[in-house]
Every structure is written in structure tokens, then in C-alpha cells.
Design brief:
The complex is a heterodimer of chains A (112) and B (182). Chain A is mainly α and 112 residues long. Helices cover 80% and strands 0% of the residues of chain A. In chain B, helix 4 crosses helix 8. Classes of the chains: A mainly alpha (112), B mainly alpha (182).
Chain lengths: 112, 182
């Protein structure tokens, strides 16, 4: 079984209708891959943010649910005492410091 | 480029050098396009499917184990994507009653007869895209049955049987054309 005639028929057919990819095919495909990769990264980022937000909300809700009453009374006791608010400036300073440090680290390691 | 060099290039692409992937498109784009274009009639659709193939292959690059050559692996992705595209298009093709008993010698003689090249071309055009792809991969691209089986995701024996049936179908189409001409 050599099927020479069939082989020649297929060769003629292929040579008569040569179809080619456009010359910029590789370029446009690479751009598409780049676009899809960026879109995927964006989606993953959104999913990560939503997951963190959901976990945080659930965590806070759980704390409030289990320890809400105890926390409220403790805060009220703290506020009633004259030296109760003295801790606030230190806490604010710490929060600001951590926020700025976080921003600095994000910028420094943005490429990694 | 040797397969080992290609493996190195794949490792580089996986390492974040996406621009190196362009080599594979330059090298195998035409081959994949030839496969897809045999199944899909419109040039634009074929181009889009080839692009889909390379994008899908890029996404799945970490799963490429090297069990088949890179071009065969690409062709198997292209084939699967094209077949599912064709399923969505719901195209209809002619069917032939293949139950008739015909001797293999008659089929061999006809497919070897170089005075029948024109009829064979007409008959080939009446095969389904899937069948056209199979005979082109075997007769025109000279791919071994093992590679065709990998591309089609079937056993080598199944491919051999399908080739046999396609040869018989071509014979029957030509005989039917002759009957109409009389």
C-alpha cells in the first residue's frame, strides 16, 4: 500500500491553496498573552483582597459576638478613669508608624 | 534547535522570560496553522484558533512533560480546541454507506492510480474535516501513527482502523461519482 495517487492529490491540494499566518502573528499573540496574564493577576488580586476582607469581617464579628459585652464594659471602665485616654497618643503614633513602614516596604519591594 | 535547547528555552519562559515564547510561534506557527486550516474553512477563524492554541499552550507550559515533541503537543492542543469549536458550529457532512464488502486490492489499486489524482482530490474534499486532517497528517506531513494517535488522543490501533475506513470511503465516493457520471 503506497497510495501514491492519494499522496500526490493531497500535495497538489496543499500547494494550490497555500494559507499563511500573518507576519505579525507572534507579536499579536505575545501581546494577547501579556494582556491575559495581567487580567489574571488583577483577578487574583481582587479575589485575595475580597478573601482577606471577608476573613477580617468574620474575625471581627466573631470577637464582637463572643467578647462584645466584656469589651464594651472594659472600654467604658477605661474611659471613666482620668488616665484612661493617656494610651491613645501612643497607639495613634504606633498605627501611623506601621502604616508608613508598610508603604515604604511596598514601594521598595514592588518588583519582587 | 535541538529538543534539549527547546527544553532550556521552555525553562526560561517559565522563569518569566515570556518574550522567548515567540520562538515557538515562529517555529511551529505554520505547522499548527496547517492542521487547523484543514479543519476550519475560514482563514480568520483558523488564525484565531491558532492564537488560542498558543495562548492555551503558554498557560499549560508547566504541565509539558516532553513525552511527545513540542510540535506534537501543540498540535494535540490545537486539535482539541478546533474540534470543540467545530462542535459549536454544528456543521453537516455527507455520509456514505461503508458496510459494502470491498477487497483491499481494489482500494490499493485505485489509491495508487495516478490517472485518478483529480478524482481523488474531489473525493478528499468530501471527507469530514476530521478525516481530512487524519489523511493529511499521515500522507502529506508523513507523521508516524504514534504522533497522530497522540494528537487525536486515541490509540494507534484506532487510528490505523480509521485510516483504513477513510481509504475505503474515498474508494466508495469515487465509485459513486463514476456512477453519477454514467
Amino acid at each position: 500500500m503506497t497510495d501514491n495517487a492519494l499522496r500526490k492529490a493531497l500535495t497538489q491540494q496543499a500547494e494550490e491553496h497555500p494559507m499563511r499566518l500573518p507576519s505579525n502573528f507572534a507579536y499579536t499573540t505575545l501581546r494577547r498573552i501579556e494582556r491575559e496574564q495581567k487580567a489574571r493577576e488583577r483577578r487574583e488580586k481582587i479575589v485575595a483582597i475580597l478573601t482577606i476582607a471577608a476573613c477580617t469581617i468574620v474575625g471581627i464579628a466573631a470577637i464582637v459576638w463572643f467578647y462584645g459585652a466584656a469589651l464594651k464594659s472594659a472600654i467604658m471602665v477605661m474611659l471613666r478613669q482620668p488616665e484612661g485616654l493617656s494610651i491613645l497618643p501612643a497607639m495613634t503614633f504606633c498605627a501611623l508608624f506601621l502604616l508608613l513602614f508598610n508603604l515604604y516596604l511596598r514601594r521598595k519591594f514592588a518588583d519582587y | 534547535m535541538q529538543p534539549t535547547d527547546e527544553q532550556r528555552l521552555i525553562a526560561r519562559v517559565l522563569d518569566g522570560h515570556a518574550e522567548d515564547y515567540g520562538y515557538f510561534m515562529e517555529r511551529y506557527g505554520a505547522e499548527v496553522f496547517r492542521l487547523v486550516a484543514r479543519l476550519v474553512p475560514m482563514q480568520q477563524d483558523a488564525e484565531e484558533l491558532v492564537q488560542d492554541t498558543f495562548v492555551r499552550a503558554y498557560d499549560r507550559l508547566p504541565t509539558y512533560t516532553g513525552e511527545a515533541s513540542f510540535s506534537t503537543w501543540l498540535c494535540s492542543i490545537a486539535y482539541r480546541l478546533t474540534v470543540s469549536w467545530l462542535r459549536r458550529q454544528k456543521m453537516n457532512y455527507i455520509s456514505i454507506d461503508e458496510r459494502q464488502d470491498i477487497s483491499d486490492t481494489d482500494i490499493d489499486k485505485l489509491l495508487d492510480d495516478e490517472t485518478r489524482i483529480h478524482e481523488l482530490r474531489t473525493a478528499c474534499a468530501q471527507l469530514t474535516p476530521d478525516e481530512q486532517t487524519l489523511i493529511n497528517l499521515f500522507y502529506y506531513d508523513d507523521r508516524p501513527l504514534r504522533e497522530i494517535a497522540y494528537i487525536f488522543g486515541q490509540e494507534q490501533g484506532t487510528i490505523a482502523t480509521r485510516l483504513h475506513r477513510i481509504r475505503k470511503k474515498l474508494y466508495l465516493i469515487i465509485k459513486q461519482m463514476e456512477k453519477h457520471d454514467r
